[in-house]
Amino acid sequence: MIIVLKENCTIEQQQALVSSIQSHGLSTNLSKGDQVTIIGVIGDKSVLDIDQLKADPRVDNVIPVTESYKLVNRKFHPEDTEFTVKNTVIGPNNLTIMAGPCAIESEEQLMTIARAVKASGATLLRGGAYKPRTSPYSFQGLEEEGLRYMKEAGEETGLATICEITSLKALETAVSYVDMLQVGARNMQNFELLKEVGKCGKPVMLKRGLAATIDEWLNAAEYIMANGNPNVCLCERGIRTYETATRNTLDLAAVLVLKEKTHLPVIVDPSHATGVRAFVKPLTKSAIAVGADGVMVEVHNRPECALSDGPQSLTCQQFDEMMQEIRPYADLVKRSLA
Amino acid sequence: MIIVLKENCTIEQQQALVSSIQSHGLSTNLSKGDQVTIIGVIGDKSVLDIDQLKADPRVDNVIPVTESYKLVNRKFHPEDTEFTVKNTVIGPNNLTIMAGPCAIESEEQLMTIARAVKASGATLLRGGAYKPRTSPYSFQGLEEEGLRYMKEAGEETGLATICEITSLKALETAVSYVDMLQVGARNMQNFELLKEVGKCGKPVMLKRGLAATIDEWLNAAEYIMANGNPNVCLCERGIRTYETATRNTLDLAAVLVLKEKTHLPVIVDPSHATGVRAFVKPLTKSAIAVGADGVMVEVHNRPECALSDGPQSLTCQQFDEMMQEIRPYADLVKRSLA
Amino acid sequence: MIIVLKENCTIEQQQALVSSIQSHGLSTNLSKGDQVTIIGVIGDKSVLDIDQLKADPRVDNVIPVTESYKLVNRKFHPEDTEFTVKNTVIGPNNLTIMAGPCAIESEEQLMTIARAVKASGATLLRGGAYKPRTSPYSFQGLEEEGLRYMKEAGEETGLATICEITSLKALETAVSYVDMLQVGARNMQNFELLKEVGKCGKPVMLKRGLAATIDEWLNAAEYIMANGNPNVCLCERGIRTYETATRNTLDLAAVLVLKEKTHLPVIVDPSHATGVRAFVKPLTKSAIAVGADGVMVEVHNRPECALSDGPQSLTCQQFDEMMQEIRPYADLVKRSLA
Amino acid sequence: MIIVLKENCTIEQQQALVSSIQSHGLSTNLSKGDQVTIIGVIGDKSVLDIDQLKADPRVDNVIPVTESYKLVNRKFHPEDTEFTVKNTVIGPNNLTIMAGPCAIESEEQLMTIARAVKASGATLLRGGAYKPRTSPYSFQGLEEEGLRYMKEAGEETGLATICEITSLKALETAVSYVDMLQVGARNMQNFELLKEVGKCGKPVMLKRGLAATIDEWLNAAEYIMANGNPNVCLCERGIRTYETATRNTLDLAAVLVLKEKTHLPVIVDPSHATGVRAFVKPLTKSAIAVGADGVMVEVHNRPECALSDGPQSLTCQQFDEMMQEIRPYADLVKRSLA
């Protein structure tokens, strides 16, 4: 940590600050420049409060040079994480394909889609039972009924299942029905939910917040790991920018940044990122080429009748075509598809 | 609602779509241009699903011309909302000053600050008992102990009290202790929390999400009102942009947009918006001049010792000076200060 | 074009507005809803001024449904554009690789790099002779001396050459030396420069502005085409967002949007987009997979000694490895590499 | 400047880097932490190239702690700059009001508006003769004819005049006609234009780029001052963000940041920032309250007939009302109005 002192900070004040820092068991290194004087702080900085230092009248700025997250940090855990969900593995050797409807609408709809995506090669079935919707007047999901259909679909097809949970109550219910939990973009910093997800015993996928920095996202994952859950993967789903030609801006370079900073697997969701059906296939190829560990895509048997997010859903046939076309891309990055 | 048809949409397809829309009890108006054909839809569009329409293979785009929120909409409720919190009123005739520490740290700290801000003219005491923190290793708040101190401080000083709640559990606890609840930026789209806040019987302040559009914000407020709570005010606290010279970018024009679109009071938080103590006073004046119904500012008796967000807190003396200086601005906009 | 009327607009006012629009030779279609009344306008809207209409006291909003650009619009020119630069073709059948140093530093540096990138399979040599630098005290380029080296390098290696021009004077000089011109991000809306580039007779690559929408970008390209130059390609180079983990956010979905809206070729620049050497190779693969017509990458013989943008430059050997690795990706999208 | 070394950097490599830095006449200060080792660099860092250092294989990151701009920097020029334009002064004691049409349309239009804004208390007449327009098919300005009208209007009314110049050619023409030049948002980093504006001998107003950071903006101003022109003021006109409810997001906190970092006057343009007529008056008050040295507002005698940006223009009468209402705000900040 580097502390930049104010220009008018006297030598006595500098010494007092240095002593105070050293009293926390830290070493310091004072460097006087012609314009600014800085203090380098060495040791376990978690005993200091950055905000407190920034408020100090002697201090101009505080620049951290190490990260605040530890368990998710690749520095302290260099090997890629891999974990099992039911009978599929998410990690560096596989290309995980999560597919299914945005929202579960009926038993028949879910079973039809589940059979189709299984046949085409997906290994996880996605489907929303609790839908976070901007307007209170939009369809909010089938809730526990939807979860029951997910369980049936998983049992019949052998697919692992993943559902978004939007509250502690949804979490408590969902753990009995599905194999993996998803924390959505709007809840990425719902810290109470993250803590409970950390204790739930199920693998979890944490989506990036609508305007979350990578650093905030990794700290959110740290909440889950710090509460006991090592089976976490991250999902890039586009960020909010000024550009409105696509719903969000898919940040594929974020996959590369994450691969440097963390050992956790990274999934890409091109459906929510763009909101455009025709962009899902090329962006899936693009995500594989850049090094993602998998993709999550929306598939619907009748997208024009979907109750939620129809415009971005592939038909079952389009999904099947996509699966055929992405195999050579998976081969190029030496990842297995089911 | 305007539906723009695809260029290759046949006349038969147009007719089928028009019939389908009319079968929902809506009127339509077909307009053929040289480049595009559009259908104007007239009536209660809540029976249609925009996403479903967008997914329709005959449809190029769907453009809403009316808003999805109703209860918060000024069109249907032209008068400014005003409501009472304990013995103070938030609304068009007053300038509400909410002041207090970012985080409640001890009984003594809170009482000292409460007495000071009361003496200077604040009417609501703010103070965080549940702190949403980016890192799991940062101070997370005193929780119920903090709420008890708030209650004491309110009783001794006569100030109304407001606390952020970050979970249903916090909500359940907080309603017994404080006069008004705050939903923070990170929970603006925690819809389960919004629904319960709608049922809790206490006035509520809804902060704008880190990257929320005004439209999403008003829909979030609609969740609260639709669940029975009419006593809602909004708080502009800066949005996330590319500019890092301040922590967020305070969007004062949003106050004006809100005043057109909704009848709910609007509070401005210059402390969180900028993260810089020296900017709080001038931006408070600026917020008053633009028409805000009040401000929320952080005050600390010893900012350099604050456990959270010290750099943006005013000292009690700075707050007192600010209160003196803003009086003529309040006079210019014909609003009462305590 | 759709004109949404104000709620309080009387029938007489509506009729007057309709008559006024019809007097410009346009047809109208009036649609009265329960909340709003709209006028659909049919015909050549370029005779109307949107800003003027928006200022009209009877008008609430004006929503264009057709684009303002024509020559670059795929609607009126469905086939992909392809054009020749010296002895290489930019278009749908090729994968164009532009490579070279950020800034030309010396004859020896440029010749070394030119020979290396030619040997590895590049077809265009890039190199900056005029460098737009944030600070006036940074290295600004060798100017005409650099252009002379480019000409020599092109003659010796047979590579086509491309240089950024930053002013009319640079343009006048550069046309005698290089085969293709580049308009950089900072000049994307330097309309005087665009007009002259439209008249210069050389192929041109137009980079996306730092925070330009796709619509603004296509209108900027329209300036070039409207002044007589049909040989234009676009270059996505990352946009400015709140995320600072990479220099900019590479918007690969923009390639897909552009392919829908325009017939012009699209190049991707992963070097400037991220500012990180290690990200160039994977993002190049990603750009190919998504459908780009080529990439522009920075290569330097000694990046640690580069006078400009060293951290994002590949070494000549890294570039060679990249070229080997991207061949199977080019095969998958059926594009030829040199 | 702080250089953060890579973890695997050997002691020999550290020493070699330190020696190399010292060979440039700089002092260094090596600080070894348990996780990272950093080198503090003391002295005139302009002899080092940050990009070159970042590309060094031994280096993880380079963090500047001092600014790259010098002449505009308040550190080296603590007093507020003030300068005279014709017979008005821009600086800390005045509130400068620039008013006039977005685009000059005719002699009569300009004279009518000039007389009106003079009568209401403006001191500078604005008016666009060269209009940078997104589409090549929009009205581009009267050019030299417009400048002639400006000169006449200035002579008749006594108002000082300001015009945007969009090219070197426009600059050469404009210097003979107007008292002050404006560099617009789209040209903020048109460095060739900035250099010539630095040599032109006229006061200049530099608008913030559409998505420019404050740091980039100050460096752009440095280009002008470094070329000999000390009479520079800055104009905040809103930045591009994800929010579309207003055309741009007016960043009033930027006024405060600028006042800390630079001695140059700061003007605010609420017309372009929002694009909404009704927001101009309240945001003008807000800008005064926050400490701006003036505002630039658009005024039109018949906004509904304006050829450019009508929706944001005040009528002459609205401008007059605004001038009455802002006087007490000017008094509160102790600034003189004409």
Characterization of the model:
Four copies of one chain form a homotetramer. Chain A folds into two domains: 62 residues, Alpha-Beta Plaits; 259 residues, Alpha-Beta Barrel (TIM Barrel), CATH 3.20.20. In chain A, helix 3 runs parallel beside helix 4 and helix 10 packs parallel to helix 11. The first copy, chain A, has eleven helices and 14 strands. The longest helix of chain A is centred in the C-terminal third of the chain and has 17 residues. The radius of gyration of chain A is 23 Å and the shape is elongated. The model of chain A has no long low-confidence stretch (mean pLDDT 93). With 338 residues, chain A is of the alpha/beta class. Chains in contact: A-B, A-C, A-D, B-C, B-D, C-D. Chains C and D meet through helix 2, helix 5, helix 6 and helix 7 of C and helix 2, helix 5, helix 6 and helix 7 of D.
